[in-house]
Please model this.
Amino acid sequence: MKYKIILFFSFLLLVSCDHSDNDSIQEYDIPQYAVINGDQTIVVNNTNDFNQLLGKNKDLENVDFSHYTLVITHGVSNAGILKIAPNICQKDGSYYIVVQIKNNYTTSVEKWNVAYLIPKVDKPTVKVSVSYSK
Model:
């Protein structure tokens, strides 16, 4: 029941978002094995912060921080991950990231991450909702 309520509110949020501004938002690929230090949601606005946070990961694409802000959310699942379904939208100046993680029945602990390039904003408001299901 709790899972259905979370899905309902996630769906409601996505339907109510302004999708016209989403054309300038791009997914940014960070491998699942990447080492990410910091909070669950991280906003990166310059090369120095990028190198401090992700400098150990040499295979990452360069970001033009004069035009973009990098938003990363990450976590740990207590079960194996079958699928990660992220979505982002903008509404009233805030960015909403909804991450739905489909787990399998193994008991392995797995890291996950989702990252987006958004138009340059010094201090964006980012709200994240994460749900897990089997």
About this structure: Helices lie at 2-16, 47-54. Strands lie at 26-27, 41-44, 68-77, 81-91, 94-103, 110-119, 125-133. Residues 25 and 80 are 29 Å apart (CA to CA).
